[in-house]
Amino acid sequence: MLGTTEDNLKKAAGQQLSASQKDSVTQIQQFVAQSKRALAAGDMERARTLAWKAQLLSEDLLKPQN
After folding, report:
1. Shortest CA distance to 3 belongs to which of 35, 42, 43?
2. Is the distance from CB of 46 to CB of 62 less than 8 angstroms?
3. Three state DSSP letters for the chain
4. Taking the mean position of all CA atoms in its chain, how far away is CA 39?
5. Dist CA 18 CA 22 (whole Å)
6. For 6-65, how does the pLDDT look when each residue is reduced to its tens digit (9 = 90+)?
7. 14 CB neighbour count, 10 Å cutoff
8. CA distances from 32 to 39, 42, 58, 64 (A)
9. In this structure, are residues 50 and 31 in contact, taking their beta carbons and an 8 Å threshold?
10. Total-model pTM
């Protein structure tokens, strides 16, 4: 999940982002960092949940804006 999220963030970096999208990038990065900390602490359920949230947000970030 984190790999997909990081790939999505790389794709988004090449796009013109709105202020809202930039806020989403910040939130995604926070979820990724929290997930990695939870994983390091051995809290697999929390790490998975945070990684899932980050991935969902990153997928939404790449959707075309209307």
Report:
1. 35
2. no
3. CHHHHHHHHHHHHCCCCCHHHHHHHHHHHHHHHHHHHHHHCCCHHHHHHHHHHHHHHHHHHHCCCC
4. 16
5. 6
6. 999 999 998 899 999 999 999 999 999 999 999 999 999 999 999 999 999 999 999 887
7. 7
8. 10, 15, 11, 23
9. yes
10. 0.89
